[in-house]
Amino acid sequence: MKILTKKREIDDFLGTLRKRGEGVSADVVNNTGNILASVRRGGDRAVRRYTRKFDGHGVLRLAPSKIKKAAGEADAEVVKALRLAARRIRRFHRKQKERSWSFAEKGARLGQIIRPLRRVGVYVPGGAAAYPSTVLMNVIPAQVAGVDEIAVTVPTPGGRLNPHVMAALRLLGVEEVYSIGGAQAVAALAYGTESIAPVDKIVGPGNIYVATAKRMVFGTVDIDMIAGPSEILVIADSSARPDFVASDLLSQAEHDPLASSVLVTTSRVLARAVEEELKAQIKKLKRNATARSALRRYGAAIIERSLEEAAEVSNAIAPEHLEIMTRNPRRLLPRLRNAGAIFLGSWTPEPIGDYAAGPNHTLPTGGTARWASPLGVYDFVKRSSLLEFTRQGFLGLASPVERIAEAEGLGAHVASVRIRRKA
Amino acid sequence: MKILTKKREIDDFLGTLRKRGEGVSADVVNNTGNILASVRRGGDRAVRRYTRKFDGHGVLRLAPSKIKKAAGEADAEVVKALRLAARRIRRFHRKQKERSWSFAEKGARLGQIIRPLRRVGVYVPGGAAAYPSTVLMNVIPAQVAGVDEIAVTVPTPGGRLNPHVMAALRLLGVEEVYSIGGAQAVAALAYGTESIAPVDKIVGPGNIYVATAKRMVFGTVDIDMIAGPSEILVIADSSARPDFVASDLLSQAEHDPLASSVLVTTSRVLARAVEEELKAQIKKLKRNATARSALRRYGAAIIERSLEEAAEVSNAIAPEHLEIMTRNPRRLLPRLRNAGAIFLGSWTPEPIGDYAAGPNHTLPTGGTARWASPLGVYDFVKRSSLLEFTRQGFLGLASPVERIAEAEGLGAHVASVRIRRKA
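^ Those are the sequences you sent over. The predicted structure of the assembly is below.
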């Protein structure tokens, strides 16, 4: 991991981070477009054809008995852990529930009605990166929001079901599960087929084909976000333990060669010690090739003169995960503008947030934390404004409304008010 | 306006509505892409070049004295109306403010921090369709959210400033105003130039070039939504006044030949009377050619047997504006799932919501009310999750976190927990 101290070096590195994962090849775009178009036209038959081709089977909907059987093979301790995690995630997300409101004034009632989406699709990756935590983090907020129907797609390459994913689905009571994946699953959810009803929104992570398909169907349905490679930024002073810092930097680096792990510190001594720790710890990792590649390209220790300046670097990067390991982590909080999730203190490592703390692990990446939020209950509801005027209330506003409509040259707007004034 | 009674006719019409405004020509996409690329490369010089070409002047930032002078030419009664509207819009949007929260449990504190976006760009159309109400509806929610910097772009073809738009900017205290428009304005806001700092989010309506540019820069910055043609749907029974209904249908039809005006009613008598009224009222409109074209293609009266069935048709269309003119409008409310704004009763015509009632007039179109919300304060804030564990709190969750991380095959996640357990 390089140690950066000069402003120009730091700016160059921020530029490199920003360009990470930019652009999708024309091939991916074309292939995805073709799959979407065939499924839109061909429905179930097209989905089956692609599923045979990519996953080697032709099953669309998973029978409850098959889900139950696969879930039965899950490790009992893992299932217990998932149950605890689900309980904590549900409790946290309940705090995000918003209520409809309205208020009366002379001659009018105005308000905002909040309603859950009717039907949502959750994409759960399959194969090597099949994560039961994805099920918890995407399904629970939708359930808390009150979504009527939740359909899950999870590809099962070779027809093999992941026991822990199936256990997670069962413990949440999800029954509508399709063993399909890729752009064909996104297309089926967006457009609907003979056997899969279309949804209002698609959420969940996926590979480049899934991400591209989501981007393309946006407008026909809503989507959550396009997740980029994972990121961690640690702000630390000389009080931080280098072994803790190093292990947390590695916990993101192991995800993806494009993952980014950045330390911003006031202590050059700490930076050097973290470097040593990384060298020692990385050897023991199964995914050390991935972590090594990520650290080489998108890892750095940035030296700043003060924690305030460190916070500014963090705000510019707007990291997905931000850990604060300083003497007084809370004191820095007001300065931290942009981050998906903030982990305070040495005893709050990022993995605790990935699984069991309660907040969502689906977080804005690639600098989008400047404007985007963690996945939450608010992603599964929408608002309608409510307006109700009495005749008196209407008459009180009629004249200003006419004036503005006239100034904007909209005669029928004026007429709609005038016809009532004269009534 | 056609009267539809048969299920097949109605389904065909819904299909026509859905396809309305679908697709953007390759020319528009290419031209917009070129403009974005030149501004990204060329900065101010490129913006000036396009502004000279399209608007006939080379001014970027409007001097306060010029804004003041133009605002001085505004009609005093209109300015008074805008001031009243601004007050009411601000009061309504204040109710949308959300607060950060956190809660403690044994060994942990968890929460959600809500922060305003730092810098936002508001695109205000210029020329023929320069609307002061656009300024109020886009700037006020950002101000209520607490956005630090609001930059407005408003093209001024031929260098002519719209007095009412300038008056609206002045009464809200907006000082950073650029007299640029089109894709070049969107590019300047997204990428920044020597004299225009980049923003975090771009909001506001615009023509097809502006909409296409917003779609293309999404990801570099956030955008509000892609506004489609305007829509109104009126649910009415035999108690409704045909002249009121007709005038409200026309108030949307005058906007755009692609606008849609739909009556859904249980009364064939009302449908016929509305048809007569439309014929009579449309003659008096200045924009009657536009309204006529919109009504012919995207206007219809749909006859349903019950108000419940009428509500289902409305839910399927998910209109931008939904008016309820029935004997007991409130009774229908629980059945109305999808609508940008709901106007209850005969004395709540849609134009009152466009200007002065208080709720936002930027509403989801094209069926997106199934998942999208009116523009609001929530569009100008973002959330960060907050996690803080003590050593004891951490140890209580360490084992389940390790189990799940192991099941997902993420060794560095396991190590980050284990290294602390052993510490």
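Residues 76-94 of chain A form the longest helix (19 residues). The CA atoms of residues 9 and 162 of chain A lie 45 Å apart.

Shout if you want it in another format.
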